[in-house]
Amino acid sequence: MADYKLVIGGEGVTTSDHLDVKNPATEQVVGRCPIATDEHLDAAVDAAATAFLAWSVVPDEERKAAVCRMADVIRENSEELAELLTREQGKPLNGLGSRFELQGAEAWARHTATIDLPVEILHQDESGSVELHRKPLGVVGSITPWNFPLMIAIWHIAPAIRTGNTVVLKPSPYTPLSTIRMVELLNEVLPAGVLNVVTGRDDLGQKITEHAGIQKIVFTGSSATGKKVMQAAADTLKRVTLELGGNDAGIVLPDANPSEIAEGLFWGAFINNGQTCAALKRLYVPDALHDEICAALVEYASKVQMGDGLDETSILGPIQNKMQFDKVVELVEDARARGARILCGGTVPEGSGYFYPATIVADVSDGFRLVDEEQFGPVLPVIRYSSLDDAISRANASESGLGGSAWSSDIDRAKQVASQLECGSVWINNHGMVKPFAPFGGVKASGIGVEFGRQGLEEYTSIQVVHS
Ligand code: NAD
């Protein structure tokens, strides 16, 4: 059984305590994750602070080249990382699984290397000039979830490093091993201390948010934890970027063609087994199309193979952990008990692992837990509507505001609906397709700030205005 190490100041550091990381497909232990003490965290923050002195003044072109080298390292080691990711996260190697995640991580690093934040001239005349400069913040604490551990880590660390900050990264206790391995590899092309990783349980996240030596927190996780992060960060007035939970609604317009949109709807909802922040989690369909859309979704679901992610033929894997598995079962059983129809899936297969089949649920409505709460799993509730305005207001009647979608043969009509949805991203005829150049973030309880693109990069900087 492999024991993994923390990475502090470019060195592997062993700990006396560990926690077991399980493969959700087999419930067998994959490896042992180190548990960092307070002293380890202090050492990681010190290493990052020391590295910041030099890294923050390295010429921009050198930092761009370093982030490109990070992308190269991810590409060169993608098979090793994908396999480890599948073992601990459960997602399949194929489909929209581990290899796809590694491709995303590489693409994001490569694109982030190209974005510039040039000095802006705000004013210039014979009396002088006013210039806006962007400066790095210092040590960034990055806290990541278990659904896309590697891609989300890159979403945090590439822009931080690109802009001259240094990083202390803490992955989820459910999926820390692939992140540790990726950080070890990235340290081969980064100066010591620029990127450190500490691992442990949730309390380590709280200690990071409270730590006086850290200037900013970038956090991706649930809205409940995001609120705690913001509170804990307040004492030291840290900058925060919070990418939180979603309960995204999709609205099918009456002119949509069910057979044309079924595949997009299915993957909008079931990407990563539904364990995706901006997945389609509630689908509103007009009465006239309801049965046809349900049938098309059920037919598509029947073709998608679920199994151990290491099997090259699997397209969906298990749910990542027992806690999430139990929540999904509970929400479906609650809906069933209240008279919902389970059109496909909805039963736990025999055998080990946290497998749950792709499940489509009809005869549900707002007020059901499955509709009102974020299921974060392979279940899609299909909700009828008779008035489009009513569907829009039900879609907006949620604390969350991460993503949304409108599905129609008429793009302009779909855009009109999209503009009325209260969310940070809205897609027409697809759901959840993020791009490295397009800012991504939530409104309402789905977060604060954005990632990606120039606006995402700016969040890792402070403004200094130079008047001359
Ligand atoms: P979580 O909030 O339970 O955990 C996220 C991370 O926070 C983990 O590393 C955890 O150890 C750490 N943590 C736990 N308690 C903490 C505390 N008090 N202070 C600081 N850190 C703490 O979330 P999860 O279950 O890992 O991920 C699922 C959630 O994340 C879902 O709600 C999903 O929608 C959301 N998510 C959002 C995005 C986005 O971009 N908006 C992306 C992926 C996931």
UniProtKB/TrEMBL annotation:
Residues 16-466 form the Aldehyde dehydrogenase domain. This is Aldehyde dehydrogenase family protein. Keywords: Oxidoreductase. It comes from the Bacteria. InterPro entries: Ald_DH/histidinol_DH (IPR016161), Ald_DH_C (IPR016163), Ald_DH_CS_CYS (IPR016160), Ald_DH_CS_GLU (IPR029510), Ald_DH_N (IPR016162), Aldehyde_DH_dom (IPR015590), LUC3-like (IPR044086). Belongs to the aldehyde dehydrogenase family. The active site is at 243. It holds the Pfam family Aldedh. GO terms for molecular function: oxidoreductase activity, acting on the aldehyde or oxo group of donors, NAD or NADP as acceptor.
